[in-house]
Amino acid sequence: MNLHRRAVLTGLLAAPALIRHAHAAPQPVAAVQQPRWQRFAVPAPATNGRPAITIVVDDLGVMHPGTPRAVALPGPVTLAWFPFARNLAEQVGAATERGHETLLHMPMQAFGNSIAWTGPDPLRIDLSAEENLRRLVAAIDAVPDTVGLNNHMGSVATRDVALMDLVAQEVRRRDMLLLDSLTIGHSVAYRSAMQAGVPATSRDVFIDNVADPGAIWGQLELTERIARQTGHVVAIGHPRPHTLDALEAWLPGLAAKGFVLWPLSATVAARNEVVMPGVAAA
User: Could you tell me the domains of the chain?
Assistant: First the structure.
């Protein structure tokens, strides 16, 4: 089954026609604000028939020196930040200046069931809806200029329909997008987002589940194959030494191989058939 749904609305309706007296002067109409995920999106180059690759690096903000190395990558890449990291405004600002896009990396309950795995204040299935919403809102507010969020861990949380519906409704209310990291195959996060009308997609490749240079390069080759087969791919990695070594060597050569590097918002737009304002069709 192809999970990439069709015809998700951009979330904005045309302003109703103004009814005026026949002799009244026309009044200016206020501009309709773009949804957040478009407002903070990084402009994407036209593909011109080339397959697009989206790289997401998450677990950022507390892993040093991995975070500065991820920020220094050639872009655009999409960087996902922990809400409990310090100096987020400065860190995210430096990444924005490098042309990268920003996600909230939202901690969610995992089978390990440990704060050491998830970080503080994860979303949990044994908490009230009110407490989970409080944690989610606080995390969204902690990371500036985000286009959306993806889950950190979540092998328990992302299987819970009620909790993922709560997440999807708040993401929708904030006009954000959602990336299901698919840390477990039975995740319902993407389905909940689809049902809530949230622009969303799922991860295709994990780059570094195995901390071995050969395995990482094999996953990057898989990323290229999927992009050629489907037109676009979303691959997630982490700010670990072997991963960053590979990305630093691999990213600069993508254009010569016939690929285009896209921020996550562009891939979500393509998969949801949303035309981004001011962007010509590829």
Answer: 51-271 (3.20.20.370)
